[in-house]
Amino acid sequence: MTRTRSFQRLIEKPSLYGVIIALTILFMLPIVWLLISSLKAESDFMKWPIVWFPPTPKWDNYLRVITDTRFDFLKAAFNSIVLALLFSVPNVLFSASAGYAFARGKAPGRNALFVVLMATMMIPQTVTLIPQFIMYSRLGLVNNYLLWFLWGLAGSPFQILLFRQFFAAFPRELEDAAAIDGAGRLRTFIQVFLPNAKPVLSITFLFAFSWVWGDWFNQSLFLSADKVTLAMKLASAFTDPKGNPIVTLTLTGLVIYAMPLVLVYFLMQRQLVQGIVTTGLKG
Amino acid sequence: MTSDILPYPPARTQKILGMSRYEWLKNRWFYIFIAPWFLGFLAFTLFPVTIGVLMSFTNFNGSNFQTYQFVGLDNYREAFTQVLSSGDFWHAVTVTVRYALITIPINISLSLFIAVLLTRNIHGQGLFRTLFYIPSIIPVVASVWIFKALMDNNYGVVNSVLDALVPGTYVRWMTEYPFFVLVMWSIWAGIGGGIIIFMAGINGVPPELVEAARIDGATNAQVFSFVTTPLLTPVIFYQFLVGVIGSLQVLTEPILLAPGGLKSIGTIPPRETYTLMIHIYQESFTRLRYGYGSALLWLLFCFILILTLIVIYTSKYWVYYEVNPQEES
């Protein structure tokens, strides 16, 4: 018995690592390949049989994507940042206020309103697609960044839930002390709760920002070419003056587009994992 | 103990929102704080939902604001005829359901499997978890492009590898097997979140339960199937729900995966990946049949709702709920 157990242990660990590492490599290969391809010349990329590594890495692919005026990469990047900020700043702020209210308020109707909040999480946004589109086009909100700001003002159920969970764990003494000092609810919220909520503030901001940054659907539905964002631009391949697609440069652009999110994720791993576990939300 | 400073006890019995003046002063901050969310709910959810229900009974086409007519159940009747005659709507339904039926079980079981491996007391748990989550972090436009380039008919890596293994193999993935590529993409980009959630669940299993089972002589496999899995059923249940709701609405990925370099939201993907939401988009925004499109959206919504209710209703037979009397209301 003990002999089989220890033998089992002996082969178990290496084979466990073996399986994990093999799976990881399998999942990382597409990304590694994206990075390699972003440094290839288009002619090498198109060769058959495949050229695995570029003979000389073409670093100026990156320079070209950013500077080539035909691609207008920087303008689209600027638009994406503006759009994402317009949404995420009010989204975080007003999700926090609603989360705080649900965590601390005892007003009549609170539970009913909370049920409404949870129910909206289950209503697919796409179900209201057509009425929303008609409504926004009547109000002049189509092809208008203001729409994202208005969405931001409303907060979002997942974010509100995150703030509620976080604020519910705050010690009561904090706000009692503030109340004794004469602070009202708004002051308590702004001067006591918000400054102490940095982990949630940063993670909700990351969620909100990366939602807009990566959202192709709403942007291509509600915005036109003159307000193009990175997501919209990169959905189509870059082309040479004759209109032929240049895949390598498109992939280079995608690396620049995706890199900020991956880097921020590495920096904020711990809070991010916490946030995902709390809401069950997947990126 | 309340932390609200009130001016003075109520003198009058004036009612505000059914509350005494005292109660109102004590609680009004709550309503002010949730007002932005609640107004947003009215404007962006409740109002469009109401309009959408009404619209589905009309022949609204986007411009006949004054002259549209109520057509009763005609739109729904047409959808029903499509089902009977296996029209485009029915085809889109079968594609979508097939997508959900294939991806949800694979996603859940694969992420559970990897989460189990990663929680087996190994070095670098966090690092592996991070690496598996990267595909989910990458914006969908980028991750779909990666797959397009990987599986490309002419210069794709997958074909190169196949050709090296079995010379002469050549598969037109993007044009002949787009559904397969879509499924591969959704597994690659989708399991990261599941892994994180399952790992948290497994790490949350009380060690004394595992210990007790071990003392009774349980093997790893037995601990997994009789201790860990039952405790994880709430997580699996939730993942299942989110998966159903998400995969029945899939629209972006088939469009972005469609062959060709130029993409707009009106792009029609190959028939194998022509999903329900894409069909609804085409009916509404391309053929300008907003009334009929709304009816289809409501059918989709009811379908999601019924599935959700079935999952919730049956959950009492397979989901283990720990009774926690101290749970906050």
Would you spell out the secondary-structure blueprint of this structure?
The complex is a heterodimer of chains A (about 280) and B (about 325).
Chain A: H1 2-37, H2 42-45, H3 60-67, H4 73-104, H5 110-122, H6 129-138, H7 146-153, H8 157-168, H9 172-180, H10 185-193, H11 198-214, H12 217-222, H13 230-235, H14 247-279
Chain B: E1 15-16, E2 19-20, H1 21-55, H2 74-84, H3 88-118, H4 125-137, H5 140-150, H6 157-165, H7 173-176, H8 178-203, H9 207-215, H10 220-247, H11 252-257, H12 276-286, H13 290-318
Helix pairs in contact in B: 2-3, 2-13, 3-8, 3-10, 3-12, 4-8, 8-10, 10-13, 12-13
Molecular structure report:
- The complex is a heterodimer of chains A (283) and B (329).
- Chain A contains 14 helices and no strands.
- With 283 residues, chain A is an all-alpha fold.
- Chain A starts with a helix and ends with a helix.
- The mean pLDDT of chain A is 88.
- Chain B is mainly α and 329 residues long.
- Chain B has 13 helices and two strands; from the N terminus they run ββααααααααααααα.
- Chain B has a two-stranded antiparallel sheet.
- In chain B, β1 and β2 form a beta hairpin.
- The two termini of chain B are 18 Å apart.
- At the A-B interface, α1, α4, α5, α6 and α7 of A face α1, α3, α4, α5 and α6 of B.
